[in-house]
Amino acid sequence: MNDAAVEAALADALAAASAPNVAAGPPMTGSEREGFRVAVNACWNVDPGSQAARVTMTVGFVLDQSGKVVGDVRQISAAGGDAGSTEIAFQAARRAILRCQSGGYQLPADKYDQWKEVEITFDPSGMRLR
Questions:
Q1: Using CB atoms within 10 A as the burial measure, which of 54, 57, 65, 68 is most buried?
Q2: Assessment of whether the complete model's pTM goes beyond 0.85
Q3: What does the pLDDT look like over 58-98, one tens digit per residue?
Q4: Which residue range is the domain that position 52 belongs to?
């Protein structure tokens, strides 16, 4: 929805990447996180006046080493809307992720363990990435 929302997502991702269960390796830099944020944000389109824009949607996906989604984006949880608006919010999140992966997300290969499994929450107050 906005840059601040996506920035919050990446801050959460960095915190998760430094958790003890994440494989050791150099941390992702701010510019690497920013590149991923810009890529996802560029394709996220939700009508701000629609019911779907009020749904908090968490999706997850796995990336291969070239930065492409393996399998499909899956819905993990949703809150704040009826079945119809939840489905619209899920499809908007899914499209944002799949559309912007053209050629694969540009992520550092030596830090693959930090970004191979992604979970993003799209919500009215911000997007969080774990």
A1: 57
A2: no
A3: 999 999 999 999 999 999 999 998 999 999 999 999 999 99
A4: 3-129
The 3-class SS string of the chain reads CCHHHHHHHHHHHHHHHCCCCCCCCCCCCHHHHHHHHHHHHCCCCCCCCCHHHHCEEEEEEEECCCCCEEEEEEEEEEECCCHHHHHHHHHHHHHHHHHCCCCCCCCCHHHHHHHCEEEEEEECCEEEEC
Give residue 82's identity as a one-letter amino acid code.
D
The CATH number for 120's domain is 3.30.1150.10
Any idea how long the chain is?
130
Report pLDDT digits (tens) over 39-52: 877 788 888 788 88
> Is the CA virtual torsion 31, 35, 36, 37 positive or negative?
positive
DSSP β-ladder status, 69-79 and 117-123: unpaired
